[in-house]
């Protein structure tokens, strides 16, 4: 049986006008700022008007460590949202926006797949409502103003060797990772080393996703550290006087985007911070707004539960006062087999032993998630090659962990295939058994916060930090940043810092290469192992196969 591609399915979607989708959430057309017929931003005045309402139930979708076999976390998030609506619940989906870099690189889009997608898929994976362009522009304005300040006499006495504000572009471009700027003589300024990150790694992106409103946004932008003086004292964005203009550029980008699933259920798609260097969750303003408008809000966090869910709980929930009712951990039979040592080419053949051998990775994620005091259900995202015996092996393993695994066939069947999962999730959410708490307190020492995550989540023996890093953390504590949570930047493919170490490794250590202060976003970044803030394109980028067909339709996006 031939299956349609994601883009073919999305193209055939029976989309409703966005005003109809808004009406499902009680948003009048006057409070929607339309971008075409199928997407709109929600007005700030409307958001302000619903703040006294009680919150719905927050459901987090996370996953095992990603494998090349694919897990389908976003697909499951969308499928679960549709499933909840199918069983008569008022549910809304909240996910991140897609970055152009991975779209044209190798990861593809970020709107779900099969019959569990958010549309308009092409626009969401391209320019959408311009949020990422606005973030790039605001970031670039600050970059320009820093070098301009230095050019016109450097009144703030910035040490040009210690400008820590890098530039950004929303594309994978390894040639820009390390550059020399201001060459060409007196007219162009003072030559210095610089570099580019991808837009989604910008602190401006993280701030947009954590800010409560425009005032909070401007304050956080002002708090960003952009450079240091010779005496190592920090220079802030507000010293450069860029925070006001940056807020103006971000005014519309700050408002959440409303779109719809293939089944015409509401979805907020807003923000898109990296899940390594930042916290990998959609915006606080979209999530908190959705909770005022729907009884169940299904959201996801980037990469596996060791990164995304940990940051969702310890950073986003802590900072925004959120409390999840249920966590859904997505796993696939194929990924279990890969964790069990099967090569990608051999995943189609039944291999129950390999499934069992790969299950400890899932088991550890379940244990970790439970340690936050939240009930866990496992969604087995169904692939057509899965056999009954393989699915049963996962179900049996999860039952031994004190949780339940439910087969979900949303990719193939839409909400009809996810109704069982939705029923279980709603039952757990309604039981109100969650007793959520982050795994470390605000007042713990920064180095201890890092150790806690490494030991409790990664099951490492210790985090290795040399004296220079420990001294830096101590200095930040003295400067008043000790209460901040920690954002771990490490590989998504393993609990360890070795991307090839699958399963549930123990007896490893986590080397912390450097620490960075994101004073505006409000977290300390601990960079572990080899993490890139500017990805490169693969040998054959997806861009080579993206084009318009004779009917003017986009081909090759996935």
Name some characteristics of this structure.
single chain; 558 residues; alpha/beta; Rossmann fold; Domain 2, N(10)-formyltetrahydrofolate synthetase; Formyltetrahydrofolate synthetase, domain 3; 3 domains; twelve-stranded mixed beta sheet; four-stranded mixed beta sheet; 20 helices; 25 strands; 19% strand; globular
Would you give an account of this structure?
With 558 residues, the chain is of the alpha/beta class. The protein folds into three domains: 6-129 and 253-431, Rossmann fold; 131-249, Domain 2, N(10)-formyltetrahydrofolate synthetase; 446-528, Formyltetrahydrofolate synthetase, domain 3. The chain is built from 20 helices and 25 strands. The strands form six sheets. Strands 1, 2, 3, 4, 5, 6, 14, 15, 16, 17, 18 and 19 form a twelve-stranded mixed sheet that branches. Helix 7 (131-151) runs antiparallel to helix 11 (243-250), helix 9 crosses helix 11 (243-250) and helix 15 (352-370) packs parallel to helix 16. The protein is globular.
């Amino acid at each position: 049986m031939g299956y349609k591609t994601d883009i073919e399915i999305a193209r055939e979607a029976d989309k409703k006008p966005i005003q109809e989708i808004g009406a499902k959430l009680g948003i009048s057309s006057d409070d929607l700022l339309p971008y075409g017929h199928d997407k709109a931003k929600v007005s700030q005045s409307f958001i302000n008007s619903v703040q006294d309402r009680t919150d719905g139930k927050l459901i987090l979708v996370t996953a095992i460590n990603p494998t090349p076999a694919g897990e389908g976390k976003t697909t499951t998030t969308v499928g679960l949202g549709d499933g909840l609506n199918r069983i008569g619940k008022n549910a809304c989906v909240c996910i991140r926006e897609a970055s152009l870099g991975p779209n044209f690189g190798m990861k593809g889009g970020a709107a779900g797949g099969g019959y569990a997608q958010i549309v308009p898929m092409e626009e969401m994976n391209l320019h959408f409502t311009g949020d990422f362009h606005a973030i790039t522009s605001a970031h670039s304005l600050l970059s320009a103003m820093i070098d301009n300040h230095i050019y016109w006499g450097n009144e703030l006495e910035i040490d040009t060797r210690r400008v820590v504000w890098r530039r950004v572009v929303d594309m994978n471009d390894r040639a820009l990772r390390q550059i020399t700027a201001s060459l060409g003589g007196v007219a162009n300024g003072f030559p210095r080393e610089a570099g580019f990150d991808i837009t989604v790694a910008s602190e401006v992106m993280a701030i947009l996703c954590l800010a409560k409103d425009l005032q909070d946004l401007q304050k956080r932008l002002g708090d960003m550290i952009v450079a240091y003086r010779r005496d190592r004292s920090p220079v802030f964005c507000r010293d450069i006087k860029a925070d006001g203009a940056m807020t103006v550029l971000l005014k519309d980008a700050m408002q959440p985007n409303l779109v719809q699933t293939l089944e015409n259920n509401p979805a907020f798609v807003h923000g898109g911070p990296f899940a390594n260097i930042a916290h990998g969750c959609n915006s606080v303003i979209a999530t908190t707004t959705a909770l005022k408008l729907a009884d169940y809000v299904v959201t996801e966090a980037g990469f596996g539960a060791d990164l995304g869910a940990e940051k969702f709980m310890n950073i986003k929930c802590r900072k925004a006062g959120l409390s999840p009712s249920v966590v859904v951990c997505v796993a696939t039979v194929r990924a279990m087999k890969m964790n069990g040592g099967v090569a990608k080419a051999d995943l189609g053949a039944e291999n129950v032993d390999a499934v069992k051998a790969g299950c400890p990775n899932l088991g550890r994620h379940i244990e970790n998630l439970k340690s936050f005091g939240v009930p866990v259900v496992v969604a087995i995202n169904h692939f057509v090659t899965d056999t009954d015996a393989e699915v049963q092996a996962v179900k049996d393993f999860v039952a031994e962990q004190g949780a339940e695994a439910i087969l979900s066939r949303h990719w193939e069947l839409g909400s009809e295939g996810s109704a069982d999962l939705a029923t279980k999730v709603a039952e757990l959410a309604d039981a109100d058994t969650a007793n959520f708490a982050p795994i470390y307190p605000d007042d713990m020492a920064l180095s201890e916060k890092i150790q806690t995550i490494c030991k409790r989540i990664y099951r490492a023996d210790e985090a290795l930090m040399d004296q220079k890093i420990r001294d830096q953390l101590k200095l930040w504590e003295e400067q008043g940043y000790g209460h901040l949570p920690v954002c771990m930047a490490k590989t998504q493919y393993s609990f360890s810092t070795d991307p090839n170490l699958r399963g549930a490794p123990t007896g490893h250590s986590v080397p912390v290469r450097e620490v960075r202060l994101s004073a505006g976003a409000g977290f300390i970044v601990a960079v572990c192992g080899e993490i890139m803030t500017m990805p490169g394109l693969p040998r054959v980028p997806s861009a080579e196969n993206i084009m318009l067909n004779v009917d003017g339709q986009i081909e090759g996006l996935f």
